[in-house]
Task: structure prediction
Amino acid sequence: MSVGETGSRSSWFQRFLLPGFALKAVIIGGGYATGRELAEYFVPSGPWGGLAAMLLATLIWSVVAALTFALARKMGTYDYRAFFEGLLGPAWIAFEIAYLIFVILILAVFGAAAGAIGAATFGWPDLAGSVMLAVGILGFTAFGTALVESLFKYASMLIYAVYALFLVFALASFGGLISDGFATSPPPSGNWIAGGLTYASYNIVGAVVILPVLRHLTSQRDAVVAGLIAGPLTMLPAILFFVAMMAFYPAIGGETLPSDFLLRQMAVPGFHILFQLMIFAALLESGVGAIHAINERVSGVVEARGRPPIGVGLRTAIGGVVLIGCMFVASRVGLVDLIASGYRFLAWLFLAVFVLPLLTVGVWRLLRPAAPMSMESSQ
Result:
């Protein structure tokens, strides 16, 4: 083991895999886990075009995550406010506004997805699933980073295992249709690039959301390696899901919940409920990641003023206010409309306030040698 920024012993898992699991936790969310985002951004490009777009998004995530992690470690900034103060200076407030728009949108999507899952699986009112998700998010975010990291670890294990089973059952149930879908599909056309860029752009904000888990990094090498690994770790479940979806291309693109449609075709006893519970876990860890980032941003400001970190009560209050204000937007706007219109707007927003500054000012800061310490400051 090595010693991380916290001064404690950091394991190999915490240094190299935890950041990728955390990024996957933030990105997988309601649209990815249910298949709705995949239907929106990848299915229109066809089987091969969709895979090409996913690989492009993976590459973008890896590069941007590696740069973000390395810059955060160099500046010693482990919440998004401190990070953007270092990157943008006085213009950091531009990201704060963009992030609040992001949180409102994704929590609305999560609420809509949780409600749809509860209704489709158990026949509950739409509000019931949303309330359960909100309570779960508050429960995990109230107690700080350690509990959040445990959620990312164990929920990720569940998610990877269930997606692997999902592909196995899909191949057993309609593997021939999957093969036919890829065999008869033309090569990727130009529109796959736009799908990959859009999907990568609005999701890559996750690299900043998960800054609190980077305290375990012990070197710039750790930061770069963890960032490069994060892209494939995040996209792997989506690729498995997308391959299964291609059995019913192009009709699958019109399904509000592609996951529910495919599970009905498999007809494997008990697996439908297990998969829906996995999606709920994905929604939970994504919501927890978004709210935890806000809590850590507030706590960072409080600690900078010489006060102790915020406690359970204030963390719960902050999370409750955000959730009440955001998640139930879903009762007014549908899941499909939220993903189709709002996410494209976010893609352009984060390109402007995050990706472009990172690739210019951020790279310059990374390449600039550290200023030598003066004799006076060393005494």
Remarks:
- The mean pLDDT is 88.
- The two ends are 32 Å apart (CA to CA).
- The beta strands are 2-3, 9-10.
